[in-house]
Amino acid sequence: MPESSIPRKRSRGAAMLLSLGLPGLGELYAGKPRAAGITFAIFCAFTAISIGSVFAPLPGVVVVLVPLTVALGAWVITLVRAARAARQASEPYALRAYNRWYWYLLGVLIGVFVLRPATVRLIRSQWLQAFRIPSAAMEPTLLVGDFIFASMRPPDRQAHRNDIVVFESPNDVGLLVIKRVVGLPGDTLMMRNGALVVNGVSLHEAFVQSTDSVGAVGESLERGRAWHVAHLVQRAVATYRPTMRNWGPLVIPRDSVFLLGDNRDESFDSRFYGAVGLDRIRGRPLKIYFSFGSQDGHSSVRWARIGHRF
């Protein structure tokens, strides 16, 4: 008797495990290649809907529940279809040419080590990325312990005044940082006693926080002085000694933007490393999907911040 005609039984557990490795592989194991293709298409569609729902204007915790529910639904459907295909397989089951352990292994390896990493890279670079805020540099806009989604779509890589942007640090390759755009290409910026002056106009920035720490008042910007001097106007270079709250005026290069943290006394930003090239902007914050940290003297979930959009 040829091996392909040896009676076999299809295991629902095996079908489900195979589909965990690659959606649809369980149906292929059960001899239903067409159903396998449909399951894979359904899984991809649900994944796209889950990602797309993050961009929708959903309120509060719904912003978390909808993507999670859709993603969970994709896996439930995948596993149910795999189990049903195995249950409905004819008994005895005659093995097909593709019912070989090495084809299953190849499918799982492709799913786990090729398709999933490639999909994650595509989503993170072109659509969506999640971050946890680790420092107080953007307080009070972003608090330590805020978990945010950021849009990495090409249209969201444009810089406008007062936008909060995600950009690649000029100091650490691959490190993504979040700051606010305060100076556009060609602008003349300066700071006097903590007040930002843009093109000769002193701004009142409602989103800014100053801790009024004694150290910040006179803290030297010696580390960034070389960049300052290269873009300095109307000042004697020899006597120029920039500090955290007093510097400039500086002219921003035509291909760059000047970025500051909202917590001006606690932020490592363009005052230290200079303007950032437009080509380093990767996206912008979209919404807070979770927040946990100090509140009323103790750590807890900050429910009121969940769902906040920028």
Q: Care to describe what's here?
A:
The protein contains eight helices and 14 strands. The N terminus is likely disordered. It has two domains: 124 residues, no CATH class; 177 residues, Umud Fragment, subunit A.
Q: Indicate the CATH class of the largest domain.
A: Mainly Beta
So, CATH architecture of the largest domain? Ribbon
Overall 3D form: elongated
Question: What's the alpha carbon Rg, rounded to whole Å?
Answer: 27 Å
Helix content: 25-40%
What is the strand content?
A: 15-25%
Number of domains: 2
Tally of contiguous helical segments: 8
The N- to C-terminal Cα distance equals: 68 Å
Q: How many β-strands, per DSSP?
A: 14
Key features of this structure:
2 domains, Umud Fragment, subunit A, eight-stranded antiparallel sheet, disordered N terminus, four-stranded antiparallel sheet
Quick description:
The chain has helices at residues 12-21, 25-29, 33-54, 62-88, 101-126, 214-218, 225-230, 270-273; strands at 7-8, 93-94, 128-132, 146-151, 164-168, 176-183, 188-192, 195-198, 201-202, 247-251, 256-260, 276-277, 281-295, 298-301. The chain folds into two domains: 3-126, no CATH class; 129-305, Ribbon (Umud Fragment, subunit A).
Topology at a glance:
Blueprint: E1 7-8, H1 12-21, H2 25-29, H3 33-54, H4 62-88, E2 93-94, H5 101-126, E3 128-132, E4 146-151, E5 164-168, E6 176-183, E7 188-192, E8 195-198, E9 201-202, H6 214-218, H7 225-230, E10 247-251, E11 256-260, H8 270-273, E12 276-277, E13 281-295, E14 298-301
Helix pairs in contact: 1-4, 1-5, 3-4
